[in-house]
């Protein structure tokens, strides 16, 4: 196959992004070109998400949109597209459906098929038909081409899940939890080059090592912290029941570990937590938050919650609102329950009306917005270390330690005396605050 120009659209979570970067790495390794303009691409890869019905719809719409770029298809949307590759969770889980209903896809790849990309493309070019290459890759964690800003990198430390929450498709898509070998992760992190913020991700980061007989998550954090090219480490997707004393000590003693933790709780009320297949109770969640706040002063807590789980009542919804008031998370994400086939919750009685779920999500966001705004207002007058991410029309954009990339707001600031470079950490005097964002000036 002659040298081609590729474009990738990666949808869904940061874990999917890392899988997409392995596909990009395979492309670069073979001497092909990557573009950020889909109209210049001869081959487009859509790295799909299938976690929720809305994500599947987004993936299908993206595939159909990129298909309009076929060479010679339309004068209104000129493009050079020759082949359209559908990769990721959607093709992994719904291969037969896509083969039947999505002829626009020239190649179907699963979540571990980066190594099979080019043999599938060559077959598609040679045979002129759709190639189902799902499961044909070696599963090898090939070298990545990083798609984020140079100073921010993600490290996926495991794949799959064994929590078996009753609403979730992930175990059916990704399989059982598999921790990646620690030495390979250390080598991969070292190979990422100078990285100010390394974000650890997995379906459940806190379970690292348990599939091999022993939890080794704190040990992994220490090993990564020993690398000279790693400035700081941020933790996402830490399931509450797996936060150990050893992890808390790591927050206390490790200066490279940012005092920030993402704790997907999903609900606060005992009956709903039990129906969800979650292990904890409200009192356990409250105790964890209290412990973290006491043992790690200044720690920022983020969480996610699902509204409208089957049989959820107004009283239980109000219980979650009160939980937010009591816990005072720095930030939260809220999602309407999505009824997913092949999950135990799909057949549960008392499915909540869509309009009620929508209202509950809105009320949760409104309540959290007031909490987040009040917490940020309390930062006014402080001088915070801020990581420079880039520029906007007014000045610079960056983040404090309590703001994860793309999900927790930003710090907008000016630097009157000198030009700054993305990846720098500078002291910013906070002058004002909005609901999720701060504004300030570099303090020289």
Outline the secondary-structure elements.
Layout: E1 5-10, H1 14-29, E2 33-34, E3 43-48, H2 53-67, E4 83-88, H3 89-93, H4 95-101, E5 107-108, H5 117-127, E6 131-132, E7 152-156, E8 158-159, H6 170-174, E9 178-179, H7 182-191, E10 195-201, H8 217-225, E11 230-235, H9 245-253, E12 257-262, H10 270-276, H11 282-295, E13 300-307, H12 314-327, E14 331-336, H13 354-377, E15 383-391, E16 396-399, E17 411-414, E18 425-433, E19 438-442
Parallel strand pairs: 1-2, 1-3, 3-4, 4-5, 5-6, 7-10, 10-11, 11-12, 12-13, 13-14, 17-19
Antiparallel strand pairs: 8-9, 15-16, 15-18, 16-17, 18-19
Helix pairs in contact: 12-13
CATH homologous superfamily title of the largest domain: tm_1862 like domain
Query: Residue-averaged pLDDT, rounded?
Result: 92
Q: Give the oligomer, counting copies of the same chain as homo and different chains as hetero.
A: single chain
Largest sheet: 6 strands, parallel
CATH topology of the largest domain: pyruvate-formate lyase- activating enzyme
- Total DSSP helices: 13
Radius of gyration: 23 Å
